[in-house]
Amino acid sequence: VLKVVENLGVSYVRSNESYKTKLGAELRKLKFPYKALAEDDYEARRKDHISHFILRLAYCQSEDLRRWFLQQEMDLLRYRFNELTDSLRQKFLEHVNLSFEAISEDLKNELANELYMSTPGLSMTKVKEQMFYKVGLADAVDLFRARRVFIKDGFAYVPLKEIDAIVTNNYRAKLSKALALTARSLPSIQSDERLQPLLNHLSHSYIGPDYSVQKNTGKISLEQIDAFSMKSFPLCMRQLHKALRDNHHLRHGGRMQYGLFLKGIGLTLEQALEFWKKEFIRGKVDADKFDKGYAYSIRHSYGKEGRRTDYTPYSCMKIIMSNPPSQGDYHGCPFRHSDPELLKQKLQSYKIPPSGITQILELVKGMHYQLACQKYFELTHDVDDIGFSLNHPNQYFVESQRLLSGGRELKKELSSSGNSQQKCNSQESMNSNSTPTSSNTTADAELEGLEAYFTED
Ligand code: SF4
């Protein structure tokens, strides 16, 4: 749900009607009980509260996570608050101890002239239509400082359209404090072995298709990879491919990220061995060293060695949230981990138009890395709206291929990934969230084993 809120908040102006219509439609699609208060649905509200508090635990763990969570919760609250009826809004304000009282029609008519003169942007007709709230000055400092409200006897008379800002600011302050407090009590919670894996993975869990079922296996040839890297690879993989071709080597973070991605797009084990070997022996690694030091780890990632786990390619969240690259590394997400100036230069060298680069950098500045990647997809594929929410580098590849081939070649994969994506988007709430997360947890634990095999740089 919060991901959808983020998506729409970036693509639309938050106050306009199309934003509200679209968000309403998306929340209904996800079966999010945003009208639970109006419908007096106790069970739905209970689930909503539980999921909110679990997310607090998961998202209090770093400054980045806290900021992201706060922003999306603010936007969601603003929307829900504005959807309430007048009486429910009043009930809500009382419930959260915000003693703002809607003024009576009589008082409003009496003060109509003053309200009209002191409230910029409201015509007399609007003054008559809008509800006004009597708010203590301490809660309306910003408004009276900006001379946007009528003041009388120590109270500001705030129109409904400004009340949501006071409510959300109040909520932001409370939630921010609560997240800081929760973060402080994390060590004791993390010692609980039932909660710890869930919390570690929830903030970057991925519940879409894992791209481990390679219906496409063996359908691509090694000769195609250079062309694919330019047309259909997301920036992270394009960067890794270029670094590999330039340096004939990748350090272990890069080999993991890129190797599993290539496996996901359809490289067989034999092809992977040939691909990496050919490139590495062009550099400082001879064939013997490759066979001894690197071939094992590639077979391992295909589930042919060790615990025989068939490893799955990394999702965007995993790439963005874990194992940041250090100097000499090329893995990670360029939208998250590159210096903005370097990112700009890279995009310029890939012939992205200046206006597109500005849009991408704006999204990056707002920490919307996957949306920046979606914009990159749109610009490199010349489409206005990609029509899907990007969560996985292999999804990027599949969608790109579908578009470039007119929807023919990868149809089968797409229909299955599409379904799973829907599954990912549908709010099956905590149950569906926790199942894949725990399976991710197992996979991650096993991956740690695999990483040990990649120690040689
Ligand atoms: Fe790669 Fe995802 Fe970052 Fe795009 S958003 S560059 S697919 S990690």
UniProtKB/TrEMBL annotation:
[4Fe-4S] cluster binds at C236, C316, C333, C373. Residues 228-397 form the DNA primase large subunit C-terminal domain. Residues 431-442 have a biased composition (Low complexity). This is DNA primase large subunit. Belongs to the eukaryotic-type primase large subunit family. Keywords: 4Fe-4S, DNA replication, DNA-binding, Iron, Iron-sulfur, Metal-binding, Primosome. Residues 415-430 have a biased composition (Polar residues). The keyword Iron applies. GO terms for cellular component: alpha DNA polymerase:primase complex. GO terms for molecular function: 4 iron, 4 sulfur cluster binding; DNA binding; metal ion binding. The lineage of its organism: Eukaryota, Metazoa, Chordata, Craniata, Vertebrata. It comes from Podilymbus podiceps. GO terms for biological process: DNA replication initiation; DNA replication, synthesis of primer. It comes from the Eukaryota. Pfam families: DNA_primase_lrg, DNA_primase_lrg_N. Heterodimer of a catalytic subunit PRIM1 and a regulatory subunit PRIM2, also known as the DNA primase complex. Interacts via (C-terminus) with PRIM1. Component of the alpha DNA polymerase complex (also known as the alpha DNA polymerase-primase complex) consisting of four subunits: the catalytic subunit POLA1, the regulatory subunit POLA2, and the primase complex subunits PRIM1 and PRIM2 respectively. Within the complex, POLA1 directly interacts with PRIM2. InterPro entries: DNA_primase_C, DNA_primase_lsu_euk, DNA_primase_lsu_euk/arc. Its cofactor is [4Fe-4S] cluster.
